[in-house]
Amino acid sequence: MAYHFRFAAVLNYRRDLEELFQQKLVMAQERWASLRDRLVELEDARQAAGIDLEERKRRPISAPLYALLVEGLAHRDRDIVKQRQDLATQHQVVTGKRRELLIKMQERQVMEKTRERDYEKYLAQERNSEQKAMDEQTVLRFKHEV
């Protein structure tokens, strides 16, 4: 009789679920990385705009142009603050996905341990059956020899 794990469908389901959560984690990490890259771009643009403003202030500059440049810097600062908030939120999402994946991995591992124990039990039963068969053959041979 061949071995068959009675919860094989559950084990396969848990493996598939773990894989799905791995994919979700990867997507969340990619989103976090893109948000981080965007933050770096915003900070670089803010720095360049600040340098541009400082260079323009060395020469005579009209008040409306100065106000426009300062408002542009303020706008960039608000974008940076919002991007940092989005990045922090996405970091929490990544952390949550990582925790969920860990739970799914543990659930799969529980099923694999159960399968291993069940297989060991099956092997022990097979050994016992074989031993009984050999014992019966030995008894039958002994009866015939006597």
Provide an overview of this structure.
The mean pLDDT is 95. This protein has helices at 8-57, 63-145. Helix 1 packs antiparallel against helix 2. It has 146 residues and is mostly helical. The radius of gyration is 34 Å and the shape is rod-shaped. It has a domain at 8-108.
Give me a quick take on this structure.
With 146 residues, the protein is an all-alpha fold.
Largest sheet: none
State the low-pLDDT regions, or none.
Answer: none
* C-alpha-based Rg, rounded: 34 Å
The tally of strands reads 0
Alpha-carbon distance between the two ends: 34 Å
Proportion of residues in β-strands:
under 5%
What's the overall average pLDDT, rounded?
95
So how many helices? 2
**3D shape:** rod-shaped
- The helix content, as a percent range, equals over 70%
H/E topology pattern: HH
Counting helices, strands and paired strands, the structural category is mainly alpha
Itemize the secondary structure elements and their pairings:
Elements: H1 8-57, H2 63-145
Helix pairs in contact: 1-2
Characteristic terms for this protein:
146 residues, single chain, mainly alpha, rod-shaped
